[in-house]
Design brief:
- The chain has about 250 residues and is α/β, with parallel strands linked by helices.
- The protein has a single domain, classed as NAD(P)-binding Rossmann-like Domain (Rossmann fold).
- It has eight helices and seven strands.
- It has a seven-stranded parallel beta sheet with strand order 3-2-1-4-5-6-7, with helices on both faces.
- Helix 1 packs across helix 8, helix 2 packs parallel to helix 3 and helix 3 runs parallel beside helix 5.
Amino acid sequence: MASNFKLLEKKVALVTGCNRGIGRAILDLFLENGAVVYAIDREETSLCDYRNDPNCIPVCMDVTNSEQIKSLFVKIKNEQNRLDILVNNAGIMKDALIGMISKEQIEQTYAVNVFAVIELIQYATKFFKKQKSGSIINLASIMGTHGNIGQLLYSSTKGAVVTLTKSASKELAVFNVRVNAIAPGAIDTDMLHSIGDEKMNKLMSGINMGRLGAPKDVANVALFLAGDLSEYVTGQIIGVDGSMIV
């Protein structure tokens, strides 16, 4: 018998990077479980499929734009007067060998993967402290916990996400605010397929479960962290990697 129980009923969530892959899977699963979701993406037309869903509120914006971030949280306050979940999923990957990494690549990658995450956490925390509740879920990476050849830049940003998650969890626990991160391995997304066939074959040989992860595999963990089933879980970096060796 199908259950009508929804894990995120009456919760308000903010999810960045919703246009495809992991972000889209998290958006779909959160909506399926009853959340009102502010779905963030840079492309205005990327979320047209959701225009008839009253619980999905698409917002076209750049997470590196401080004024747009401020306006977003004003909008949430005016429309909902609460926020329960923040998912920092938006990210970019600029791979280059040491000696070939440009200053522009460094600035762009840190702007999206680190600086925007910190800024969004600071705004969301204003809601969470007042409510004495909230869940922050950051998307890290197995590269941020283990590193990888040719990924000094990307892995360093995701390593920053790991440590900022642990620090924020310690600071916010007194307010009953949980902060966790998910560290995916090789997930079947457009970003992964951009690495080319040779690198893909090498990657597959190091996954002990013998398959790429699906975006839904990551979304399922995000759902657990977003809801009340994880009410005593904080400061954790949860790998979703199929026992991948890096």
